Amino acid sequence: MKNNVLQLAEISISYNPKVRPSERMKISLSADAETIFRKIWAYPLELKECFYALYLNRSNKILGYQLVSVGGITGTVLDIRNILQTALKANACAIILAHNHPSGNPSPSDNDIQMTRRIKEAAKIMDFSVLDHLIILTEGYYSFSDEERL
After folding, report:
1. Which helix (H) or strand (E) holds 129?
2. For a FRET experiment, which of 3, 26, 107, 108 has its CA 20 to 30 Å from that of 138?
């Protein structure tokens, strides 16, 4: 190369926690995660299907959350790489997933089951644990972990 200056984009990776470690909430049960998801949910549950992730440290204390995807009435599109990218940025050890069913049907669809399996397999390669996947409804929720489907 002849003294050419390369034009490259600088990549910056950051995580800026605003909560002190001693003040982080701990997730012990699926009900704990449900409560947190309900507090951070951006849209009415019957309006659009959304997909969220909670990122936890080794003690199951919440490092942060991410709104992964917003879709329509019957579904949303996910990119597993985005979920894992954020887990890496946050230095997480575990992930809890959640999405809603605007229809109010608590049963996971075949697509829900397959996507959960794919996320879990991809996370395992990178040494993350997927602790649960919740389907949040206007009244109640479904937990893959509680139903032993994780």
Report:
1. strand 129-136
2. 26
* Owner of token pair 């397999």: 121
**Do 62 and 85 touch, CB atoms closer than 8 A?**
no
- Under 8 Å CB-to-CB from 29, ≥6 apart: which residues? none
Record the pTM.
0.91
Burial 107-122 (b: 16+ CB within 10 A, else e): ebeeebeebbeebbee
Kindly list the distances between the CA atom of residue 33 and the CA atoms of 28, 55, 58, 94, 143, in Å, as whole numbers in the listed order: 8, 11, 16, 13, 10
Is domain 26-137 classified as CATH 3.40.140.10?
A: yes
Residue pair 55/90 in contact by the 8 Å Cβ criterion? yes
Strands 94-100 and 50-56: antiparallel
Do the beta carbons of residue 61 and residue 25 sit within 8 Å?
A: yes
What are the structural domain ranges in the chain?
26-137
